[in-house]
Specification:
Order of helices and strands: EEEEHHEEEHEH
Structural class: alpha+beta
Helix content: 25-40%
CATH class: Alpha Beta
Number of strands: 8
Number of domains: 1
Distance between the termini: 44 Å
CATH superfamily: Gcn5-related N-acetyltransferase (GNAT)
Largest sheet: 6 strands, mixed
Radius of gyration: 17 Å
Strand content: 25-35%
Length: about 180
């Protein structure tokens, strides 16, 4: 942040690029959350993100994330501990502002690897996003979810998010020559 402060969770410094969380498990696992800020880090997120955005190729994904980053998009990922670290959850988000909600964090993308769901990874990443939003003085967190994603809806409701409205969309015709 411009003021030199880093996001915190329960007084724990999260840093701008990483955070350490302990899951309740035996033995406790230490999870690390990073912001993907290099092409290599973005590419490492692709195998998880493509599960949510299957229309993207890896090169399209990298190009689009880099382009969106110039407009404030961030790509956070949760990595399991060593000796064999693995990215198990990814979130794309941005901080924005509008007349309806003031300053808020918008989650564009939130996905946990299909083989790692229901193990607390999504909860850890969403908890980190809440702390990040608080540190950046956001009053709310928002996300949209496809109507067919019933398991995701159950997860969001269990995490304390509420359904606040409908999202409408329409394709625009291509420009006339």
């Amino acid at each position: 942040m411009a003021d030199g402060h880093s996001p915190c969770l329960n007084g724990q410094n999260l840093g701008l690029t990483s955070a350490i969380f302990s899951l309740v498990a035996a033995p406790p696992l230490v999870m690390t959350i990073h912001l993907a800020q290099t092409t290599a880090a973005i590419a490492q997120c692709f195998p998880v993100m493509v599960q949510l955005r299957p229309h993207l190729t890896e090169s399209e994904f990298i190009e689009q994330v880099l382009r969106q980053q110039t407009a404030g998009y961030h790509l956070a990922y949760l990595e399991t501990p060593t000796p064999h670290p693995q990215i198990v959850a990814v979130a794309g988000f941005r901080i924005t502002e509008n007349l309806a909600w003031g300053q808020f964090l918008y989650v564009d993308d939130l996905v946990t690897n299909g083989t790692a769901r229901s193990q607390g990874y999504g909860h850890q990443l969403l908890t980190w996003l809440v702390a990040y939003a608080q540190e950046y003085h956001c009053t709310q967190i928002h996300l949209d979810s496809g109507v067919m994603r019933h398991q995701a809806h159950k997860f969001y409701l269990n995490q304390g998010l509420i359904i606040t409205g409908y999202h409408f969309a329409s394709s625009t015709p291509p420009p006339q020559p």
